[in-house]
Write a structure and sequence with these properties.
The complex is a heterodimer. By secondary structure, chain A is mainly α. Chain A contains 10 helices and no strands. The relative contact order of chain A is 0.06. Chain B is an all-alpha fold. Chain B is 79% helix and 0% strand. Chain B contains 6 helices and no strands. Chain B has helices spanning 2-5, 8-24, 33-59, 67-107, 112-132, 141-147. In chain B, helix 2 (8-24) packs antiparallel against helix 3 (33-59), helix 4 packs across helix 5 and helix 4 (67-107) runs parallel beside helix 6. The longest helix of chain B is centred in the middle third of the chain and has 41 residues, at 67-107. The chains are: A mainly alpha, B mainly alpha.
């Protein structure tokens, strides 16, 4: 962590911001932080082969997203993910309504939540340090003994969602697709992010376009839309631009 | 030709994106603006990737996958089917136990006590998760549905 403190801080900010967006979930925060780590690294050759930055960034984002997810949950009553949805249900059961009252009348409770989260992260870190040796021994188990257990857990994970065997078939089909993509050097993480975000994106896109068509809104006149569009285009073009810049600098260093 | 056939995924994705672009022309000017803009850019990038793939396939003559690798893939696919078939027929607990036993004994070449121990452990874990915790029971499979 201390060796990659900048990356740790940036990934934590990513996690907090993603966590504050309702309905996105921890996996997206992790994948975006991983993408940021691999894009911002000078030497990317070890990503996917055990580079510690590829573990550090998603884990920092994953831990940070819980704090961010509390913002819409407590302030607006919109849960950021499954955990906060359960938490929101518990609040309602105890007769507490999220919203403005939560941040004025029940401010003490909000601070209790923040401190609980802070302490739980410390306790998890201490437990992690204490158990790192026995956990590391798991890697000495022969792969051939691990495979059936992992496969069975994958099947159970797919079945637990709705109890339908069709979900297992779907998971297996995506497993095959992932393997084919890996074999053909296609990145899998953008597909996962797209699958997670697509329902929300498409719903809101169609709603916005319909409202635009009916003349209710004019999204090109809104500064927020323009800033987001500019950020999207920049994030698409920046890696290619930086890569080209590195090549040119490398050529200049090596000389003609 | 074999090297070229190995790069088919780009072509498939280009076909999918192209057909989506084609159908987006049925939308109105405003509704179709963003889909057309995004899909045009996607098709452009995919076409570039396909040209790159074709160039690589043309320059790659010896990079054909070895027979051993393909054999391993076939074996892995067969074991995956065994697991799916086992769960579909016998349910998640029994099917998983049978799969673990078969894998450990005939694929990993482990001794019977190790194979039975691991499959029993997996079965016990699944039974604890599905049987003891609140929530829906385990998936019982086709034969389980016929029996119960």
């Amino acid at each position: 962590v201390f060796g990659n403190f900048g990356l740790f801080l940036r990934s934590s900010v990513i996690g907090t911001l993603i966590g504050a967006i309702p309905g996105i979930g921890s996996s997206v925060a992790g994948f975006i932080a991983y993408g940021h780590a691999s894009q911002s690294a000078r030497d990317r050759s070890n990503f996917g082969k055990g580079d510690i930055r590829g573990v550090l960034a998603p884990e920092a984002a994953n831990d940070a997203k819980d704090g961010g997810a509390l913002v819409p949950t407590l302030a607006l009553g919109i849960p950021g993910g499954t955990g906060t949805a359960v938490f929101l249900g518990a609040l309602t059961l105890h007769g507490m309504a999220p919203g403005r009252e939560m941040l004025t009348d029940n401010l003490v409770l909000v601070f209790v939540l923040i401190w609980s989260l802070f302490l739980s992260n410390w306790i998890t870190s201490l437990l992690g340090l204490a158990l790192v040796d026995p956990m590391a021994r798991l890697s000495t188990i022969r792969t051939v003994r691990m495979v059936p257990v992992i496969l069975v857990l994958a099947v159970v994970g797919a079945l637990q969602f709705r109890g339908l065997f069709a979900d297992v078939i779907c998971a297996a089909a995506f497993g095959v697709l992932g393997y084919l993509m890996k074999r053909q050097d296609w990145p899998r993480i953008p597909l996962v992010i797209a699958l997670a975000l697509a329902p929300m994106f498409e719903t809101n896109l169609h709603l916005t376009l319909r409202l635009q068509e009916l003349g209710r809104i004019d999204f090109w006149s809104r500064p927020g839309v323009l800033v987001l569009a500019a950020l999207t285009v920049t994030s698409l073009l920046l890696p290619a631009f930086l890569g080209r810049l590195r090549v040119i600098r490398g050529r200049r260093r090596t000389g003609p | 030709v074999k090297a070229l056939a190995g790069r088919w995924l780009t072509g498939v994705l280009l076909l999918v994106a192209g057909s989506m672009l084609w159908s987006s022309f049925g939308l109105s000017r405003v509704s179709g603006f963003i889909p057309r803009a995004v899909l045009s850019a996607t098709c452009f990038v995919l076409a570039g990737q396909l040209v790159h793939d074709l160039w690589r396939a043309h320059s790659q003559t010896a990079a054909l996958e070895p027979e051993r690798q393909r054999g391993r893939e076939r074996v892995a696919a067969a074991w995956g089917l065994v697991l799916l078939l086992g769960v579909w027929l016998f349910g998640v607990v029994v099917g998983s136990m049978l799969f673990c036993l078969a894998w450990m004994r005939w694929h990993a070449g482990e001794r019977w006590p190790v194979a039975v121990g691991l499959s029993s452990g997996v079965g016990a874990l699944l039974w604890l998760v599905f049987g003891r915790l609140p929530g829906p029971g385990p998936y019982v499979g086709l034969l389980g549905e016929l029996v119960f």
